[in-house]
Amino acid sequence: MSIDLYYTAGSAPCRVVLLVAAALNVELNLKPLDLRAGEHLTPDFLKLNPQHTVPTIVDGDFSLWESRAISRYLFNKYGEGSSLYPEDPKARAVVDQRLDFDIGTLYPRFGQYFYPQVFAGAPADEALLKKLEEALSIFDTFLDGQKYAAGQQLTLADLALVSTVSTIDAAGISLKPYPNVNKWFELVKKTAPKYEEANGTGLKLFRAMVAQLKAKSEL
């Protein structure tokens, strides 16, 4: 029985799960949710996930949400022989740290800066932009002398971070001041399995949504 994925294609956290599934060659039963129509607030979905967030997976009678938790679950179930989440405690700790940096620092700072502009028509906040730029600079430092985010091999950390960084790029925020990030970004786009299918398609929808919302706010 395949795992159900409740998701929104343009969502960066949902694209993390798609990237991990692609890297592990796991087929997911895709179940898109229209958040604007409130499909995540139905009684049936709330039984699966009382936080009513995407992505959410359902594997038989087991449901799980939060993209990084889902990523680890998929690896634990299907990742035998894969280097995406190394067994060595120190190497795995670095992957975990990068995942925590993504979910706790980089992606929130992007969301705090950018989403009020497109969803609420708020003016750009320069202080919040500085915080995002600081996070990108920190990530650039992480990449000094490293091929990938957590060492010399592609890991779960890269798949999470590339979803965030590609979203930042798609939002029109320049990555040019961060040469290590730029180099890493191009590498992951080339080496993450099925990158365009798993991440590129959703990015196009994200760009289209942003353009539509910006056009409405300018009326």
UniProtKB/TrEMBL annotation:
Sequence ranges assigned to domain GST C-terminal in this UniProt record: 88-217
Pfam families: GST_C, GST_N
PROSITE patterns registered for this protein in UniProt: GST_CTER, GST_NTER
Annotated GST N-terminal domain residues: 1-82
InterPro entries according to UniProt: Glutathione-S-Trfase_C-like, Glutathione-S-Trfase_C_sf, Glutathione_S-Trfase, Glutathione_S-Trfase_N, GST_C, Thioredoxin-like_sf
Family indicated by similarity: Belongs to the GST superfamily.
Subunit structure, interactors included: Homodimer.
This protein's name: Uncharacterized protein
